[in-house]
Design brief:
The chain contains 5 helices and 40 strands. With 351 residues, the protein is an alpha/beta fold. It has a 12-stranded mixed sheet with strand order 8-11-14-17-20-25-28-31-34-37-39-40, with helices on one face. The chain has a 10-stranded parallel sheet with strand order 9-12-15-18-21-26-29-32-35-38, with no helix packed on it. A hairpin with a 2-residue loop joins strand 22 and strand 23.
Length: 351
């Protein structure tokens, strides 16, 4: 495929600095790009790569002052969104699911299927489920009885959706995620762990995306809730009765304990963890590997374990790096004090 740069600029509503008739034949990352490719630089951290790349054109934020005389630049408001649009232009998703129920799929009694639904090979839809218009269930998916899946959802192979789970519209669930497994609840009597029944459910609102291998446990009584537009990365664990607000980002290997309430627009970076029965306010950012052990107010940015305001944590980390030098200095001062004390003692004895 060949296209002039001016056409791509129109696609992403960008402004060209340089030759707008440059021919583009492909799209690649800034390190891998070669002649004919268009690439992008999302931040000032890419300045060196912008100077060195062999790409024929570069998409950058209109806020950046990159100047590359030998190749055209396309300035846009959001380079990530623009580059995604260009990728879709060059490599559109040609997958068109075969509408209908595969002969090897098992569909139970009283199942309500909307229009243009796809049920892939070897999938199992148990009794009394409801699946909305345009939803695609890939092969080898299990959907438990009385579950509801909204319209235009996409469920990839190997997903397990347990009984009585409710999902909104346009939800995406990646392979091997498990939704609605039992919460981790046990009562220990005389050293023996007795299982506590988990009779609640999971509620997932519209436009949620759940990564591969993620697990969301059902509530003990009521429901575990995932708010509208929230994005959950691979290998995330969300325990029973947790409440996740709208448009949050939960990054890989994060663990959220039971009955935790997380507000809207919260970002939890990789390997962060939250103890149960606490609240995290709206617009909070939790740094990677942070451990939340108490309530966090809205608009906070925390790091460390236990988590504290990130600037305070940074000062602590700087101090920790100085410990070897501080130890040497303390040792020197201790020896100097001992020397002075001995000199003072000697002076008293000779006087």
């Amino acid at each position: 495929m060949e296209v002039q740069l001016i056409e791509l600029a129109k696609l992403v509503e960008g402004t060209i600095c340089g030759d707008d008739h440059t021919v583009i034949t492909g799209v690649r990352g800034i390190r891998e790009a070669g002649p004919g490719d268009i690439t992008f630089a999302a931040s000032a951290q890419y300045r060196t790569f912008v100077q060195e790349t062999k790409a024929s054109a570069i998409v950058v934020s209109e806020e950046l002052d990159f100047d590359v005389p030998d190749k055209p630049i396309v300035r846009v408001i959001n380079p990530d969104r623009a580059f995604s649009a260009i990728v879709d232009y060059f490599a559109p998703n040609h997958y068109e699911p075969k509408i209908g129920v595969h002969p090897t799929a098992v569909v139970g009694k009283n199942v309500c299927l909307g229009k243009n639904v796809t049920i892939g090979a070897l999938s199992i839809i148990e009794d009394c489920c409801k699946i909305g218009d345009g939803t695609v269930i890939h092969p080898q998916v299990f959907v438990g009885h009385h579950s509801v899946i909204g319209a235009d959802c996409l469920v990839y192979p190997g997903v397990k959706i347990r009984e009585r789970v409710t999902m909104g519209n346009r939800v995406i669930i990646h392979s091997n995620a498990v939704i609605g497994s039992d919460g981790f609840g046990f009562s220990t009597v005389k050293g023996v762990h007795h299982k506590i029944p988990q009779i609640g459910t999971v509620e997932i609102e519209d436009d949620v995306e759940i990564g591969s291998g993620a697990t969301i446990d059902r509530a003990r009584f009521d429901k575990t809730h995932i708010g509208k537009g929230t994005k959950i990365d691979n290998l995330v664990q969300i325990a029973h009765n947790a409440w996740i607000g709208e448009r949050c980002q939960i990054v890989a290997q994060t663990g959220i304990a039971g009955s935790t309430h997380i507000g809207n627009h919260v970002v939890m970076a990789g390997q962060s963890g939250v103890v149960g029965h606490i609240e995290i306010g709206d617009n909070t950012v939790v740094a990677a590997r942070a451990g939340i052990t108490k309530n966090i107010p809205s608009d906070s940015c925390v790091a460390g374990f236990p988590a504290i305001p990130i600037e305070r944590d940074r000062r602590q980390q700087i101090s920790l790096r100085k410990l070897p030098e501080l130890c040497k200095e303390i040792k020197f001062l201790r020896e100097r004090i001992q020397e002075l004390e001995q000199n003072a003692k000697d002076d008293r004895e000779t006087s």
